[in-house]
């Protein structure tokens, strides 16, 4: 029997959320799953976007983390995951009073959070809080898929 671990595509604006990406990777690995993220990617003759979208296609779960800055590739990755009906777990870092989100990111987040066509999302303030929310979300997703 051939077994394959579940692949979890971790998507976000890289430099802005380095600590959060590392926490997400650790949680995914603690389940024995494969984190799929640009930090693990070898060099390729293909465009970065085409490589990312191909990796989304081969993932079992999409995990998106958003904060202040918009990223076109991150939006494309999310849209590809939804197009392929890949389960999407979305986490948004809360803004402090003196912070603002990019208008393009606000537009994307409104779409993601749309009451009838969107996704249920989780907000967080700190990486420790994010760690628990990712763990809980993965468990609930697995339980719901196993029971259906």
Task: Explain what this protein looks like in three dimensions.
The chain is of the alpha/beta class. The chain has one domain: Rossmann fold (3-Layer(aba) Sandwich), CATH 3.40.50. It has a five-stranded parallel sheet, sandwiched between helices. Strand 4, helix 4 and strand 5 form a beta-alpha-beta unit. Helix 1 runs parallel beside helix 5 and helix 2 packs parallel to helix 3. 28% of the residues are buried. The mean pLDDT is 93.
Question: How would you summarize the topology of this molecule?
Answer:
Layout: E1 7-11, H1 18-30, E2 34-36, H2 48-57, E3 61-66, H3 72-83, E4 88-93, H4 103-112, E5 121-124, H5 127-147
Parallel strand pairs: 1-2, 1-3, 3-4, 4-5
Which keywords apply here?
five-stranded parallel sheet; alpha/beta; Rossmann fold; 5 helices; 148 residues; single chain
Class by alpha and beta content: alpha/beta
Question: Approximately how much beta-strand content do the residues carry?
Answer: 15-25%
CATH class: Alpha Beta
Taking the alpha carbons of the first and last residues, their distance comes to: 23 Å
Major sheet: arrangement of strands: 2-1-3-4-5
Helix count equals: 5
Q: Supply the CATH superfamily name.
A: Toll/interleukin-1 receptor homology (TIR) domain
Radius of gyration: 15 Å
The number of domains is: 1
User: What characterizes the major β-sheet?
Assistant: 5 strands, parallel
Tell how many strands the DSSP assignment holds: 5
Helix content: 40-55%
CATH topology: Rossmann fold
What is the correct CATH architecture? 3-Layer(aba) Sandwich
pLDDT averaged residue by residue = 93
């Amino acid at each position: 029997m051939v077994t394959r671990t579940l692949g979890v595509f971790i998507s976000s604006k890289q430099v802005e959320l380095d600590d959060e990406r590392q926490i997400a990777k650790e949680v995914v690995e603690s389940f024995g799953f494969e984190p799929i993220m640009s930090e693990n990617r070898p060099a390729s003759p293909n465009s970065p976007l085409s490589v990312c979208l191909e990796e989304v296609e081969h993932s079992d779960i999409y995990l998106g983390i958003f904060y202040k800055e918009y990223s076109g590739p991150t939006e494309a990755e999310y849209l590809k995951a939804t197009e392929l009906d890949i389960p999407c777990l979305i986490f948004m870092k809360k803004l402090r009073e003196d912070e603002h989100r990019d208008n393009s990111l606000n537009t994307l987040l409104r779409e993601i959070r749309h009451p009838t066509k969107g996704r249920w999302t989780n907000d967080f303030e700190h990486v420790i809080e994010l760690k628990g929310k990712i763990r809980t979300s993965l468990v609930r997703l697995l339980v719901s898929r196993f029971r259906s």
